[in-house]
Input
Amino acid sequence: MKKTLTLQRELNRLKNEKAALQVQSKLLEKFVSLARATGKEKVLSAILQKTLEISTELATAEKGSLFLLNSKGAVTDSILTRKDATPEQSAKIIGTVFNKGLVGWVRQYRKVGLILDTKEDARWLDLPNQPYRVGSALAVPILRGDKLLGILTLLHAQPGHFTPETADLMLLTARQIGSALENTRLYSRLAESYRLLKLAKLKIEDYSKALDAEMEKGKKIQRDFLPDQIPRIDGWDIAVYFMPARQVSGDFYDVFLLPGNLIGLVIADVCDKGVGSALFMALFRSLIRVFSGQISLQGVSVSGTCKSDSDSFCDYHHVALRAVSLTNDYIAVEHGEEGMFATLFFGVLDPLSGKMGYVNGGHEPVVIVNPGGLKKSLGATGPALGMMPDSKYAAKSVQIEPGDIIFGYTDGVTEALSSNKELYSRARLISLLESPAHTASKLIEQIKIDLLKYIDDAPQSDDITMFAVRRKH
Output
């Protein structure tokens, strides 16, 4: 007899475990089907509903409710017995049963709450206007380790419907439900994270498109600041090359006409890169033009008269080159806090005589080459522009003979990096200039081809700018 009872208990235990595993299997199947389906955003709500349906069927209950709790014991999701309850009524019901009812008792003690007869058990609480009759009730904690994930409540109209055996079965089942619900909740959080991530990605893409559009506008505006057409001067050949490292650049060149049939030649490199440099590039370029063309700006003006009638090299060269000092002072005083400066070469060329006055404000030496190679190097005659007001700049002059080429460049040429991160170097550039081409455009092309071959597939590290001016005769 004793052996028979032992076998019967073991058989019941195995049946309960099988039933519990079947519950977990059904929940897992439901979870997988929902996770794979498109448009199923409320996976957790659907799994809660399925959990309640399976549990009600397993315990042959008539009705039930299910609450999910967070780590602080607050209800995060729920399915109430009263399906027609408004959000306000639902909140009131949850608050009431958690304080005084069977659910509250289970939450406090984390034990199975079995009520054989609701009329004789103080833990049962009849709610106002309750549209159904409850004779017996069973509330089971859903635990994951020592963590209370939720509470499952099952109801039946007849007293004594739920037994201790039913309670054992549902307690065992609740462990499997806890595992399934925890995985589902984690998945829902992950799905929500993916959804938010997707929204953020779309916002970033929209912002990126808008930023690209603005940068493209900035790129076009900067191109408009560069000469649209190089002035054609009888007896002279002029070529330029400009390749920014980013959408906008701090490098610039300029070739423009000045009063007295003179030509202004500028090549410059504003510190740093990007939008800030591009804005200052536009400012430097405009100031040089303004201050060298007998135009006033905020009360500062440039006179174009010669200081000495005996000087065959008209002092207009020197007056125009004062534009460098005036530009330096304006930037240093008005924009000194930004810490922006530029290296700049400004030459004023008389195309008839071939004489050129110049100031080199901390820029790479502009060189003069001829068929015999490097003829002269025009080094710095003062510091970079914009660093300190009242900086001193010397104006020098040079004679350009027929066949000579004036070649200017920025450090983006000599400091270009190969795929091995080795510098192009000034020595390599000079070696090309020792055997220059016979036209300005061919010289630029010769250097460009060698430079791009050297860079190969390495990312461009800096803006690259060059100009070449050749006297034909």
